[in-house]
Amino acid sequence: MSQELWTNDWKKINEMILHMNSESDVLKALNTFLTDIEKLVPYEKACIYFYDLSAPDIVKEYIGQGFSKKELLDYERYYCDIDDVVEKMMPNKEVVIKSTEAFDINERKETEYFIDYVTPAKTKVSLDTNFRWNLKNRGFCIGSLDLFRNERDIDFTEREVEICRVFQPHIELKASNYAFLFDDLSSKFAFTNAEQDVATMILKGYSNEQIAEEKCITISTVKKHVSKILEKSDTKSRIDFICKAAYKG
Fold first, then answer.
1. Most confident range, picked from 1-10, 105-114, 188-197, 199-208
2. SS (H, E, C) the chain
3. How far apart are CA 171 and CA 29, in angstroms?
4. What is the pLDDT of residues 119-148, one digit of tens each?
5. How confident is the model at residue 247, as a pLDDT?
6. What is the dihedral of CA 192, 203, 68, 70, to 10 degrees?
């Protein structure tokens, strides 16, 4: 049942949409959104995930608030494959769900995901909103906005559910602008998986040092990947590569 929003809610919602769309970088815009929405829907932790369910590594990108780096990496490397919410985010329809209503809590408490990840991370109560980020592969490329509270906290209200439902198409529109220019790079330039990852980060503006820190590899390894990327793409510099990768002709 739809919950009527207050006049002040609509004012803040419109301000947040304008704020999000004023930022051209999609990930920065969505990170700004995570910061802003906490004023309307208070949370302890929050994240936005981009999934490609047709890929071996289903997590394509993510941003988070309140999570430790280890929690985010553990999720990306293992727990995303057994996350019981992901199936409910499938993009056959738009959904905004509360974990307290989507699951039998007693059954859920017996799962590996709940015991080993949800409980230590203190994300027992969630409000999850799906979106599609790649319309060319809309059956597999889904995203989710996830807001979390610990079990002791009050559950999300119907008003808060409705607020996320209002934001849903705006998040999807912004996320679709991400377009993942680099999705076709592996076939276009015959990159290995490791080279594809580094090429993706180059397109986002990461330095060699930032890539090394993010991927937990040495600067020397990064430089070898960059060298191969430039060689395979027949480019002479990072700027040259970015221009060639972004060219649609």
1. 105-114
2. CCCCCCHHHHHHHHHHHHHHHCCCCHHHHHHHHHHHHCCCCCCCEEEEEEEECCCCCCEEEEEEECCCHHHHHHHHHCHHHHCHHHHHCCCCCCCEEEHHHHCCHHHHCCCHHHHHHHHHHCCCEEEEEEEECCHHHCCCEEEEEEEEECCCCCCCCHHHHHHHHHHHHHHHHHHHCCCCHHHHHHHHHCCCHHHHHHHHHHHCCCCHHHHHHHHCCCHHHHHHHHHHHHHHCCCCCHHHHHHHHHCCC
3. 10
4. 999 999 999 999 988 777 777 889 999 999
5. 62
6. 10
Q: What gap in Å lies between CA 133 and CA 176, rounded to an integer?
A: 4
Output b/e per residue, 105-130; b: 16+ Cβ within 10 A.
eeebeeeebbeebbeebbbbbbbbbb
86: nearest Cα among 141, 144, 125, 126: 144
**pLDDT per residue as tens digits for the range 14-42:** 999 999 998 877 888 999 999 999 999 99
Q: Find residue 51's DSSP bridge partners.
A: 59, 142
- The label of the residue with tokens 């600067």 reads 219
Q: Which residues contact 145 (CB under 8 A, 6 or more apart)?
A: 46, 47, 48, 128, 129, 130, 131, 164, 167, 171
Instruction: Write down the pLDDT at residue 248.
Output: 52
Residue type, 216: C
Which residues neighbour 134 within 8 Å (Cβ) at sequence distance 6 or greater?
52, 141, 176, 179, 180, 183
Q: What is the pTM of this model?
A: 0.75
